[in-house]
Amino acid sequence: MKKNFVFIQLILSLLFSGCFSSFQKNDEDSKILTHLVFCWLKDPGNLEHRKKIIEVTDSFNEIPSVINARAGNPIMSDRSIVDDSFDVGIIVEVRDEKGLKEYLGHPIHQKAKKDTLLPLVDRILVYDFTK
Prior knowledge:
Blueprint: H1 2-23, H2 27-30, E1 33-41, H3 47-58, E2 66-72, E3 88-94, H4 97-105, H5 107-120, E4 121-130
Antiparallel strand pairs: 1-3, 1-4, 2-3
Helix pairs in contact: 3-5
């Protein structure tokens, strides 16, 4: 009986220590650099061109330094502080500036830029920030 009690205590202590450690955040692990890109199309509002940019953005997830990449259409708003004049918004998340440089120079990004973005986009506005 005492062996079972000690065994159960051991299992519970391992279980709870694992749970506790998963709630602790390492600042390095939670650090993310966010790369925001807003695109205005040469043919404003063109749904096919928007779709192409959104689809090519998904391919950025194949780049090793990219944590997450996604794109979408603006949400129209009556609020004066909301700029809904762009055609496509893109978010790319990486760990740090090194990861951003790797993403920007990666052949997948370079091909997307050359084959999709430059032919379709008239204006791009970029914001980069980190946590």
